[in-house]
Design a protein that fits this description.
This protein has six helices and eight strands. By secondary structure, the chain is α/β, with parallel strands linked by helices.
Length: 200
């Protein structure tokens, strides 16, 4: 006849194994749930703004108190925004012209990615850093439509959504509100072509 200990010992081992398996399953489920939640956290989505004014103030790329940002009209039907970049004395003429165009490209695609605006009038005027005077001879003003900009990203980048010019991953962390290589291509590699095609 088996002793009481010889009966209870295997039961303890079996119970311990069951507890270990249950703990493992629960921990796996927690990891899976966390991964799912991480992918859908609000901060991982591109933040949208209700107006261009709100967007530009939050971004801080151009400052009103420096004369580098003017809301000539922030009516959402056809807003007119003036932006300026600093220019140092002796800057190459071609570089000044490129930067003026880059301001237009940057602002246009930023607006279409981060607001619901359909059309915008953009004026770009370089600003002399030394005397704080506008370089009027380099002034650019163009009217840009969302539909045209969308054709450009499809043609030159092979993408269909403005959100795809944002979002980068660094050290395993995803930053949804940071411009990515697609945005850089529009502003640098394809600047002249993109500006020309926007200005229709």
């Amino acid at each position: 006849m088996k002793s009481l200990n010889s009966i209870i010992a295997p039961m303890k081992i079996k119970l311990l194994l069951q507890l270990m398996i249950l703990t493992f399953v629960i921990s796996c489920n927690n990891i899976t749930d966390k991964n799912i939640d991480d992918k859908h956290e609000p901060e991982n989505d591109l933040h949208k703004f209700g107006s261009i004014r709100e967007m530009l103030i939050a971004a801080g790329d151009y400052k009103e108190d420096e004369g580098r940002l003017k809301f000539i009209s922030d009516n959402n039907e056809l807003p007119h925004i003036q932006v300026s970049n600093w220019v140092l004395q002796g800057t190459d003429d071609n570089e000044i012209k490129k930067q003026a165009k880059r301001n237009v490209v940057y602002l246009a695609f930023q607006v279409f990615a981060r607001t619901d605006i359909e059309e915008i009038l953009i004026t770009s005027i370089p600003l002399n850093k030394e005397d704080n005077k506008y370089l009027e001879e380099y002034t650019l003003t163009i009217r840009v439509k969302r539909s045209i900009a969308k054709q450009i990203i499809k043609k030159h980048l092979g993408i269909h959504s403005f959100e795809e010019i944002y979002g980068i991953e660094l050290s395993g962390q995803y930053y949804s509100n940071a411009p990515n290589i697609n945005f850089n291509k529009l502003q640098y590699l394809k600047l002249e072509t993109v500006f020309e095609e926007l200005d229709q």
